């Protein structure tokens, strides 16, 4: 069964590769539309099975553990395979998993991913020459680290490019699956599922991940949006207040008043916040040296970066890195403990 057409037997088999640390919200948003399609159609349009690397239960980023149906080697061949990932996906791109995904691709099985699962497909070389997306936080990190040059990353909610279906996190998978169901089973069923889930509108491939500034602020001011966009595009080499005002055809005082009225803070403070939030993403999601992170976010020296970071987040950049390591160790311990409990013999 190729592409997203309706299967000849009326049933479409979906495999979910569950990666440790997966997002439970993204996974549920992917699976539940299939369940509801079966319920509303009163027949089995879709069937699914869960897969892990070794067939063992998998722990989500929330700490909840999910049983699976198969390990890699015994998993049946699906009509579509979706990689469900979340935090620290880089740590789980082992050779056995990537080889298994490559085998499916060689058999022309359509592949997809939700949240950060696209990273695993890209690591396997299975997105080369494709357009794709993943959560916006990770897109910026990948661009900064100059990874996967043969892949075109998009800020769209989801991308359906030939036999690759990729989606960002949160509830965006719901929209991707509703679009898939609409193409296979008809728009009427997709809209009925959306109504059951109190989902006001089925978003399309043209929708973007991040909320426009005018929506976040509750106001629409063209000059404010123009300056904020300039700031976001110039984090590594920040523009001066005079340069920002000049580009927007405003005086310095007009720009300051505009930010004070609509954002309730000076423009340079808003600019600094953008740079520090970007720095935190790079510290959490890449292995870039702290000095390189400082440079990438427009700080003239590591000490200046450390001071600004501590003032904003209450701890140093090095402490941020350590907290990331601590979270990884805690997740590993939780996974081991869960497996130990499940493998322990029942008491008589």
Descriptive account of the structure:
- The protein is α/β, with parallel strands linked by helices.
- The chain has two domains: 12-197, Rossmann fold (3-Layer(aba) Sandwich), CATH 3.40.50; 213-323, Homeodomain-like (Arc Repressor Mutant, subunit A, Orthogonal Bundle), CATH 1.10.10.60.
- Helix content is 49%, strand content 11%.
- It is built from 14 helices and ten strands.
- The protein has a six-stranded mixed β-sheet with strand order 2-1-5-6-10-9, sandwiched between helices. A two-stranded antiparallel sheet has the order 3-4.
- Strand 3 and strand 4 form a beta hairpin.
- Helix 4 (136-145) crosses helix 11 and helix 5 (172-185) packs antiparallel against helix 6.
- The mean pLDDT is 87.
In short:
This protein has 348 residues and is α/β, with parallel strands linked by helices.
Distinctive features:
alpha/beta, Rossmann fold, Arc Repressor Mutant, subunit A, six-stranded mixed sheet, two-stranded antiparallel ribbon, 14 helices, 10 strands
Assigned CATH class of the largest domain: Alpha Beta
Q: What composes the largest sheet?
A: 6 strands, mixed
Please identify, by name, the CATH architecture of the largest domain: 3-Layer(aba) Sandwich
Structural class call reads alpha/beta
**Ranges with pLDDT <50 over ≥5 residues?**
none
Counting H and I runs of at least 4 residues, what is the number of helices?
A: 14
Radius of gyration: 23 Å
The sequence of SSEs as H and E is EHEEEEHEHEHEEEHHHHHHHHHH
Distance between the termini: 49 Å
- The CATH superfamily of the largest domain bears the name Class I glutamine amidotransferase (GATase) domain
CATH topology of the largest domain: Rossmann fold
Protein name: Transcriptional regulator, AraC family with amidase-like domain
GO molecular function: DNA-binding transcription factor activity; sequence-specific DNA binding
InterPro entries: Class_I_gatase-like (IPR029062), DJ-1/PfpI (IPR002818), Homeodomain-like_sf (IPR009057), HTH_AraC (IPR018060), INH-QAR (IPR052158)
Pfam families: DJ-1_PfpI (PF01965), HTH_18 (PF12833)
